[in-house]
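Weekly sync, protein design subgroup
Attendees: M.S., D.O., the rotation student, P.L. (late)

Item 1: inverse folding check
M.S. brought a backbone from last month's batch and wanted to see whether the design step gives back something sensible before we order anything. D.O. pointed out we never logged the input encoding, so this time it goes straight into the notes. Structure tokens as presented (93 positions):
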């Protein structure tokens, strides 16, 4: 696989992920219910995590992979906390 091909495929992936981030941000703003907003927030952090991973591949730096791991962990905890809040009305019992 040539370096030029890899560069262009990573660039196309970044553009498509940027479009996916814009679509999920639109769903967060216009979501009819809170459940839709939480689901799109979950998709937003996954897309952002993938954007950071692709940037790490493009630059060849391993630090971005650790940042993506932190984004994934914080996004999961945030989604669970918001879902629990919607179900029970409180996060901490």
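Designed sequence read out in the meeting:
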């Amino acid at each position: 696989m040539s370096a030029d091909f890899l560069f262009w495929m990573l660039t196309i992936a970044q553009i498509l992920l940027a479009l996916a981030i814009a679509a999920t941000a639109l769903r967060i703003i216009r979501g009819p219910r809170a459940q839709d907003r939480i689901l799109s927030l979950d998709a937003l952090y996954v897309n952002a995590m993938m954007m950071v991973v692709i940037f790490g591949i493009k630059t060849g730096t391993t630090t971005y992979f650790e940042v993506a791991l932190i984004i994934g962990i914080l996004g999961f905890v945030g989604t669970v906390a918001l879902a629990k809040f919607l179900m029970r009305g409180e996060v901490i019992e």
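Discussion: The chain has a mean pLDDT of 91. Helices lie at 3-30, 34-59, 63-88.
Action: P.L. to compare against the previous round before Friday.
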